[in-house]
Design goal:
The protein has 12 helices and 13 strands. By secondary structure, it is of the alpha/beta class. It has a 7-stranded parallel sheet with strand order 3-2-1-4-5-6-11, sandwiched between helices. A two-stranded parallel sheet has the order 7-10. β1, α1 and β2 form a beta-alpha-beta unit.
Length: 349
């Protein structure tokens, strides 16, 4: 019959895309898609179950379909639909994960669990290491938002792994996901006609292409290739880094540097008018940046991304169309601003 795979969060584009793709894998016999609302995206031949993972009823779904593999995609930083709120998102992330893990613990058929997490668990702080590995503790734990949710989710997953050592558990910490259909907070920010930035800072950023997200999830839910191990915690990102100034030049979008004390006010104003999810955690990322090591992804998990950070960003930029300014003109403008900022800093020293 093959594996019976349950995927949460299928009302979102990425979850639906994963469902469609894994149905073609020969070792998969049946796919069950679960979400609180019916998806607008095609799920192919998968069976959709309208269920709230925050409720104990999710245990009945696992039992009814004899699920042996679970891909928990429903850990996200943005609400589903226009009526969602931050409180609803947190409840779905944390309480939903707790209920799902409780159901998995009682299920005699579950043998593999894959959880979508984020490199935001490392936070973004001025004294961060140049590169985070999977075992590097953050200088300061995220104090709120999606990053704090992800930290709590991973804590519950580690507890489940200790209680059910017979279940292979894989946690994938994704860098910022980009691609033609990306709708995450950073993608929304990069789609603005003018990019607010923090004056005097040019953070390093990493990206992972949405195609590679699907690829590594498929690898994690299958049998591991010889010499590799698909259980544990892994950073997932494309090779290389980009500076925020390089991103603005490649997009052809001008930047508006804002002094650090005023950044929170600007972010609050943007959230109020619904322009972008300019949350405090995103502001810290756009101030200090974040870079992670992907050695374990390659050597232990055995996954090699098709897209580098620069290539993932290029594909995203092409999907968004031309910016307000030609890239060369943007490059000259950003260089002038950078030179001005450097001269001001030298004068103060």
């Amino acid at each position: 019959m093959g594996k019976v795979v349950l995927v949460t969060g299928v009302a979102r584009q990425l979850g639906a895309r994963l469902v469609r793709r894994i149905q073609r894998d020969p070792e998969v016999g049946r796919v069950i898609g679960v979400d609180i609302v019916p998806p607008d995206h095609d799920l192919g031949g998968a069976h959709f179950v309208r269920a709230d993972i925050r409720q104990p009823a999710i245990a009945r779904v696992l039992a009814e379909y004899d699920v042996d593999t679970i891909v928990h995609m429903d850990v996200t930083g943005t609400p589903l639909g226009a009526g969602g709120s931050r409180a609803t998102v947190k409840e779905n992330n944390v309480i939903g994960t707790m209920q799902l893990l409780g159901a998995c613990q009682k299920s005699p058929t579950v043998r593999r669990l894959v959880v979508k997490s984020s490199t935001s668990v490392y936070g973004s702080a001025p004294r961060d290491p140049a590169v985070f590995t999977e075992t590097t503790p953050p200088k300061s734990l995220p104090s709120g938002g999606f990053a704090k949710d992800a930290v709590e989710v991973e804590g519950y997953v580690r507890g489940f792994a200790r209680r059910r050592p017979d279940v292979a558990v894989c946690v994938l910490r994704f860098a910022n996901i980009l691609g033609p259909s990306a709708d995450y907070p950073l993608a929304q920010y990069l789609s603005l006609p003018v990019l607010p930035t923090v004056f005097g800072y040019d953070p390093r950023l990493q990206f992972v292409h949405e195609d590679d997200v699907i690829g590594v999830l498929r690898l994690a839910l299958g049998e591991p290739p010889r010499g590799t191990l698909n259980s544990g915690t892994f950073n997932v990102a494309g090779d290389g880094v980009l500076l925020l100034s390089q991103c603005s030049r490649r997009l052809g979008r001008p930047t508006v540097p804002v002094l650090l004390p005023a950044v929170n006010w600007v972010g609050s104003a943007m959230r109020t008018v619904g322009v972008s999810d300019f949350s405090p955690e995103q502001i810290r990322l756009l101030t200090h940046g974040r870079v992670v090591s992907t050695v374990q992804m390659r050597e232990t998990l055995g996954f090699v991304p098709e897209y580098s950070t620069a290539e993932a960003f290029e594909d995203f930029a092409l999907s968004r169309g031309a910016g307000l300014l030609p890239p060369r003109a943007m490059e000259r403008a950003v260089d002038r601003v950078s030179s001005f900022a450097t001269s001001v800093s030298k004068e103060r020293i």
